[in-house]
Known about the structure:
Blueprint: E1 6-10, H1 21-28, E2 33-34, H2 45-58, E3 63-68, H3 70-81, H4 83-86, E4 89-95, E5 123-128, H5 136-146, E6 149-153, H6 169-182
Parallel strand pairs: 1-2, 1-3, 3-4, 4-5, 5-6
Helix pairs in contact: 2-3
Amino acid sequence: MTDSWQTLVVPGYDGSGPEHWQSRWEAAEPDWRRVEQRDWLAPERADWVAALDAAVAGAELPVVLVAHSLGCATVAHWAAAQPERAGRVRAALLVAPADVERIEDLPLSPFAPVPTTRLPFPTLVVGSDDDPYCAPERAAGFARAWGAEYVELAAAGHINSASGLGEWPAGRALLEQLVATAG
């Protein structure tokens, strides 16, 4: 997108495989960096937050975050725990936040409760009206609590590989618009 910031990709549970829009965007942008986690299938909040903190601290430029699912909760926990470093974030695109307080079939409870404090950077939350991991009312509620704009997609599921979005150009346009308006 540009050389004036560093984009960090923050995947969720299972790490966004090669067909996921996050992975496709990252492959198309060699300067983007993925926040790697020690264990994608047994997530621990402290570990995931520490990995995000290290990635932000190590970035030489202001940061743009592109998070999906459990990555959204990771961003919220990190911003609450590291308010001084959160000032390095230019903007955040948070897609399909996982409702970790209500998902019972995945090991996401270490992330509950999700912080509902206002995020100190411009944020756009994108949800879907049929997301099996977060009801649209909850996604909109997270957006309000985080002080974010909210966009709801129709019939996009969890906005992941299974959603059939491919490169998801509409999402890329949302990111570009967010960054442009963030200044």
